[in-house]
Structures are given as C-alpha cells and as structure tokens.
Design goal:
The complex is a heterodimer of chains A (375) and B (391). In chain A, α4 links the parallel β3 and β4. Chain A contains 13 helices and 15 strands. In chain A, α3 packs parallel to α4. The N terminus of chain A is likely disordered. With 375 residues, chain A is α/β, with parallel strands linked by helices. Chain B folds into three domains: 163 residues, HUPs (Rossmann fold, 3-Layer(aba) Sandwich); 64 residues, Adenine nucleotide alpha hydrolases-like domains (SH3 type barrels); 92 residues, Translation factors (Elongation Factor Tu (Ef-tu), domain 3, Beta Barrel). By secondary structure, chain B is α/β, with parallel strands linked by helices. In chain B, strands 12-15-14-13-16-17 form a six-stranded antiparallel β-barrel. In chain B, strands 3-2-1-4-7 form a five-stranded parallel sheet, with helices on both faces. A four-stranded mixed sheet of chain B has the order 9-8-11-10, with no helix packed on it. Chain B starts with a helix and ends in an 8-residue tail after the last strand. In chain B, 25% of the residues lie in helices and 27% in strands. In chain B, α5 packs antiparallel against α6. Classes of the chains: A alpha/beta (375), B alpha/beta (391). At the A-B interface, α10 and β14 of A face β2, α4 and β3 of B.
C-alpha cells in the first residue's frame, strides 16, 4: 500500500485504495498477452479462465452460484440494467443516487430517525400498490453509505414476498463489511461494486438469482449471457475476483479491530467536542462508518478545512463537479436543519484493507479529534 | 513579463508570501485562472474557490446534463494544473434569492438591471469573502481589471490600467471593509499580457473567449428567462407615440429598454432608421403596460436620482461637488454636479450636458474629476426623468 505521508484517508466508503495483492494479480493478467475471452485461440481460453475463476471467487463469498453473476462496468450500471426491466419499483428514501435516480419512483419507503427502514410503512405501501399493480420490484440497500446502518433486509424480503414482489438489494457498501449469504437470504437481485473492496473502479456485478429472465439494455456481441454486451473488462474482472478472494470468515472477525478504532475516535470526539451530533449510533451498523455533524458549521466548510489539514472525508452528496448538496439521507431521517452539516468518516472496512503498515492508528485519530474540536 | 516583486508589493501583505493564504475566486475563465497562477508563482499559499450559482443543465433545458457548466470544470482543471486545493461553493439558493429574483422584478418594473453587480454585492463579496476568512485566508483575489491602491492611508479603487478592459463600473458597490480584504492582481495588465501568462503556464483556458452574456441567461435572451421566472406576470400592451396614438402591439415591456431604437416591432420603418424621424423607446409604463416611442430629443435627461450610494473614498465632506459619472459600462464618463445626502444614501446628479437614453436599474459610478481613474463610489439609478416624462 502507498505510504501517504501525513495524509489521513478516512473516506473508504467512497473508494478503497487498490490492494497490493490485487495490483500483482492485475499486473500478471496484463502480462499474459492479448486477452479477449471470446477468442477461439489459446489467449481466448486464458481469458475465459480468468473470467470464470473471478466469477467463482465472487459467487463463493456471497454463497451464490457463479452462473448468477453478470459483470458490468459498475454497480450503477448493474442497477440500471435491472431497473430497465421493471415499471414499478419501490425504493427506500435513503438509497444511493444510482438507485434513486434510475428507479423513477415517486413512493419512497420511509426510515426512522436512526436511518432504519420503517417496515410497517413498507407493508402499508405494498398493500396499497399491489392492489392494482403487478410485477413490483422492491429495492432496499443492505448498508447505507452515509450512516453505515445495516437494514433489516431479511424482513424486507419476507414482507415483499407476502405481496408477490421481487426484491433487489444494493450491497455495494455491505460487501467486505458484513457476511452476505444468499442461501440464507434468498434475494432475487443484488448489485456489487469492485472498488469498494480494493479492486480498481470500473467493475461491478449484477447477481440474478432464481433463473429470472431479464432483457439487456446494452446490445452487441452477446457477452455475459447476452445481458451485457461488450468485450469483458478482464483486467477489472481479474482485480474484482482477486479482491473477493481476499475476503474470508477471518476478515469479518478481524473487523473488531476496526470497531476498536471507530469507538476510540467516537469517544475522543465526544470528549473534546461535546456539541457534536452522532447519527445512527444506537442501531445495528457496520464497524467502519461514523456520521457526525457540528450544529453551526456547514459540512462543505468542515470538509474543506479538514482537507487543508490533510484529513480526507466526505460531506453530503457531491456532484461530479465538486458541488456539495444537502444529504438526502439526513433529510429522510428527519434532520432537516443538519442535512448540510454531515461529515462522514469511513475507516477501512476490514483489517486486510488497513494495510500492512497500519496506516490508521490511534495517533492519527487523536490528531483528527483535536482538529475537529478546533473547527 | 510579470515582475514577482511588484506582484508581492501589490498584494499589500506584511511578511513572506508563504505565510499568507490567498483565496482566489476562480470562475473558470482566463482572468481568474491567471490570477491564481501568478499568486502561486509569487509564493503565496493559494486556494481556489468556484461558485456554483445555478443549475446549468436546467438553464439550458438539457435533460440529464450536469448541474455544473464547463466553466466549473475548467476551474477545477486549472487548479489541478497549478496543484492548488480547489472547492466548489454551492450558492444556487443564495443566488436565486438575491440575484435572479431581483433581476426578474427589476425588468417587470421597466428597468434594465445589472445582475453581475448584485452578485458581487450580495454573493461574491459577502458570502464568498466570509468563506475565505473561515478558511484562514489573509485576502481574497479576483481576476477583475481594476487597481487597488493605498490613498490617504486607505485602500482605494482605480480603473484598470487597460481602459478597454476596466471593470470598475461593476465594482462600485465594494465597501471599504470588503476592500481591505480584496486584491486585484490583474489591475495593471492588459488582456493580451494575461493570455501570455496563461500560455506560459500552459493553462488550458489561455485562448478561451471572454464571457459576453449574463451567466444564467443563455444566448443573451434575458426576456425568455424573465418569462420563465414570472409566468403570467408579463402583460401585452400597446406601442404608442407621444400623442397616445397606437402604432402597434408588444408582448411585454420586458422586451424593451429606454433608448432602444432597433427591433421595436412597429413595421415599415426599416431603412430610415438613421434619419431625423428615427423612433426611440422613450417611456416604459409598468402599470398601463405601454411602450412609448418618440424622437431622440425627448430622451434628453438633465438629472438623475441615485439610491444605495456606496462611497469607496472617505465619506464626502462636501455635499455638493463636481464628478465624472459613468451611466453604463460601455459609455464614456460625463461631467456633472453631485448633491450628496449621506444620511439616507441617496444623491442627485445634475449633468453639465443633457444625456440620452438613461435607464433606471443601471448603475451610476462616480470618478474623480481631476484624477479620472480614481473611483469615488456609485449607486443605482432610481429615477432618470427625460423630456418625455416632463411633457
């Protein structure tokens, strides 16, 4: 891992640095030669081998079958591919923009003040909608990217099944942070992103369970069982497969170390800056994420000041232009006045990603808490 | 070539440049980009800030277009070329409340507003300056062609050395307090020199054309913007002559400006525009929705009333004195006698010679009668009675 002198990267939910093992694997893949998995010659077979072994690696960490996995350029593309097959999509109010924007939904499943989806509301909504609409897709994220709150996805599934709906889960933030077992939770669709677990950006996947037939929205040479045409991005796929293979039972157990760092920072901030508001603290959430706000300071200012002190965090939802808008997640949670004040600190999801040199230690967190208190 | 020592002196900050953080208001144009470049070169700790003022995709009615225009991307690219931190300030709501709404209302009143000055006054030099201070800056620099010089112990404003590029008209509302914090490193450069510096730094905006229009008005079609903002508030009416005879109809007084001669919408006058019978807009009645046209003589105006006066010099000791006044950005200053009421911020200005085609809503900017480049202050023209209005 690159040693970033004096820089403290605390934005792992945005993207994870490419892991060393992944870099080696990708380099090896690029050194093989010209790789097109559709070619009928030896290089084609080598390419196909990388493609399918990566698919198996990913299937195995989510306990799915490898034929259920379709590679796309991103979780966003995977979501768009899926949603183009449905007219009635019900999403929660705290979904990522990839889901919110492509769902074209007008009804949103509410969340409570802790950022947990309101299951009664979901049931009422389904009762109402399912009376005159068929083929409804319910889409709820597993882990929210801003708060880190884990959604009761098994309950969502149970309720949705009662009304004959199919269920999609955006698991981009869940992968690598919590155990995903699709044999236990029988979701119909799931979307995944490579760069959230240490693969390069530019590779994602749609998981399609239960042999459900979908139509493609990119047409061409019939790659990925006709669902996603275009020569496979074998370099990205190789990286995604390698990063997935590094996730294991031990990874999730090692998350305790991350939890220790998170709680350490939380306590330090509470001690030095008692006015700080913490969000989603009292509910089930992943170990690496903290969402906080200072009541009188807008988040864009705080993130600028932190950047100038070489602490890299996120605020609200940033447009590709760099413009920061209010957080729709905090708004949905009822924090209207604080919705432009939120600052997300996200630690490495697990010890693998903490890096051999343990780039983030209590020293860095001490400095951060001090800087925060002096805002 | 730019002399580093002069730049540093001109910044009027004590001690080494490296001890001073300077925020540069970067629009994505060549001027503010070069401002950042020369300050980086002079050794200052430079941060670029860019204001996002309106949803670009919406303004162009392009579905799915990014909210940011290419200018913001240019600013980001220049900042990365210069290797300086750069942030985008989301001022969409602020800009709508303080500039765009005022712009629409002003047109409905029959005025010709200048939103760029309102923006400097209410967004750039207030909220952005505040943000610069919060980021620990010693000063905020912009790419305006205007000079800041210490005069009688205080910072004063002087026209840009390149008179053709001078932007003092747009900066009259700068307060003394703001001026303490503001810097204009391009004040002594010509546009060509600015582009030379940009080329030397290899900036991608070196050959970018100057912006001509009001930023949120695509293709200069300001009336379309007003119609979109105030649907149902724009009434059709008559185009009449001085005697009240109806010559034609119009779709709203917002399409007209006092002194306008072309495109009046009364047919059959093409080809005789330059003779003595040419007709000008001489009156806009926002209540009866009449546009009155008449001969040039009736545009003659001997005095104007000015409100919200801002004095950049020390508040005038005398209440009555001679000044030069600029009545629109493109016009040459004319002389007159100003009568100042310091208490309520108004002034009355009597011209030495009658002036033609003055619109309310424009700015009147005062310059020293002896030192023509010295900006004294200015205000908004609220009343410009011409011969017609006194008939």
């Amino acid at each position: 891992m690159v040693k970033l002198n004096k820089l403290t990267y605390l934005d792992y939910n945005a993207t994870v640095p490419v892991l060393d093992e992944v870099k080696f694997a990708v380099m090896e893949c690029m050194n093989i030669g010209p790789l097109n998995a559709s070619s009928v010659h030896a290089f084609g077979r080598k390419g196909k081998n990388i493609l399918e072994s990566s698919r198996e690696n990913i299937a195995s960490i989510i306990n799915a079958n490898s034929e259920d996995i379709v590679f796309t350029s991103s979780a966003t593309e995977a979501t768009n591919l899926l949603f183009s097959n449905f007219d009635n999509i019900l999403v929660s109010s705290i979904e990522h923009l990839a889901v919110l924007s492509s769902s074209k939904s007008n009804d949103f499943i509410r969340v409570n003040k802790y950022g947990v989806i309101d299951l009664n509301y979901l049931e009422d909504l389904l009762k109402k909608i399912s009376a005159d609409k068929k083929n409804i897709l319910v889409s709820v994220m597993w882990v929210n990217n801003e708060t880190g709150v884990i959604q009761p996805i098994d309950d969502v599934l149970e309720i949705s099944r009662k009304y004959g709906c199919l269920v999609h889960c955006d698991a981009a933030q869940a992968l690598g942070k919590i155990k995903i077992d699709l044999k236990k939770i029988d979701l119909d669709f799931m979307t995944l992103s490579g760069h959230k677990i240490g693969a390069p950006a530019g590779i994602g996947a749609l998981v399609i369970k239960n042999n459900i037939h979908l139509n493609a929205h990119i047409l061409g040479g019939g790659q990925e069982k006709g669902l996603r045409a275009g020569t496979e991005n074998l370099i990205g796929i190789c990286g995604f497969g390698k990063a997935a293979s590094l996730l294991s039972e031990a990874t999730y157990e090692s998350c305790d170390k991350i939890k220790f760092l998170r709680d350490y920072l939380t306590n330090k901030i509470k001690l030095l800056s008692p006015e700080t508001v913490f969000f989603g603290e009292d509910v089930n959430r992943v170990n690496n994420t903290i969402l906080i706000a200072l009541p009188n300071l807008p988040g864009d200012l705080v993130s600028m000041k932190l950047d100038l002190e070489a602490f890299y965090v996120s605020s609200g939802s940033a447009c590709s232009s760099g413009k920061i808008s209010n957080s729709h997640v905090l708004q949905a949670m009822g924090f209207k006045n604080l919705s432009s004040n939120g600052i997300r600190i996200s630690l490495p999801p697990n010890v693998n990603m903490l890096g051999a040199e343990n780039l983030i230690t209590t020293n860095e967190l001490d400095r951060f808490a001090l800087c925060w208190a002096n805002m | 070539m730019i002399n580093k020592k002069i730049i540093i002196e001109d910044m009027d900050l004590k001690g080494s440049p490296s001890n001073h953080r300077i925020v540069v208001a970067m629009s994505g144009g060549v001027d503010s980009s070069v401002t950042a470049a020369i300050l980086v070169e002079a050794g200052f700790d430079v941060i670029g800030l860019t204001m996002q003022l309106y949803d670009h995709g919406q303004a162009l009615k392009k579905k799915g277009a990014c909210c940011a225009g290419s200018d913001i991307n240019d600013a980001r690219l220049v900042a990365s070329q210069l290797d300086i931190p750069h942030y985008v300030l989301n001022y969409e709501n602020l800009f709508k409340d303080k500039v765009i709404e005022d712009f629409a209302d002003s047109y409905l009143r029959g005025e010709t507003p200048i939103p760029c000055i309102r923006c400097n006054q209410t967004v750039k030099f207030t909220d952005m300056v505040e943000r610069a201070k919060q980021l620990g800056a010693s000063a905020m620099a912009t790419g305006h062609y205007i000079r800041r010089r210490i005069f009688l112990g205080y910072p004063n404003l002087f026209k840009g050395l390149d008179e053709t590029k001078d932007q003092s008209y747009f900066l009259f509302a700068t307060t003394k307090k703001q001026l303490e914090f503001l810097r204009f490193p391009l004040g002594s450069l010509t546009k060509e020199e600015t582009r030379m510096v940009a080329r030397r730094h290899g900036l991608n905006v070196a050959e970018k054309p100057d912006s001509q229009d009001i930023c949120f008005v695509p293709e200069g079609k300001y009336a379309d913007v007003v119609r979109k903002l105030r649907p149902g508030n724009i009434e059709c009416g008559n185009i009449i002559d001085v005697e009240g005879k109806v010559l034609g109809q119009h779709n709203g007084i917002i399409d007209y400006t006092i002194g306008q001669r072309k495109g009046l919408g009364i047919g059959g006058r093409k080809g005789i525009e330059d003779d003595n019978t040419a007709l000008y807009v001489i009156g806009l009645d926002s209540k009866k929705h009449n546009v009155t046209v008449g001969p040039k003589e009736l545009l003659a105006c001997n005095k104007i009333n000015i409100s919200e006066c801002n004095w950049i010099i020390d508040d005038p000791k005398k209440t009555k004195f001679n000044v030069l006044v600029k009545l629109r950005n493109s016009s040459t200053p004319v002389s007159g006698v100003i009568n100042v009421n310091i208490d309520n911020g108004t002034s009355e200005l009597n011209f030495d010679e009658p002036q033609y085609g003055i619109s309310t809503g424009q700015a009147a900017v005062f310059y020293n009668i002896e030192e023509h480049s010295h900006v004294l202050g200015g205000g908004w023209i609220v009343d410009a009675p011409n011969m017609f209005s006194q008939l």
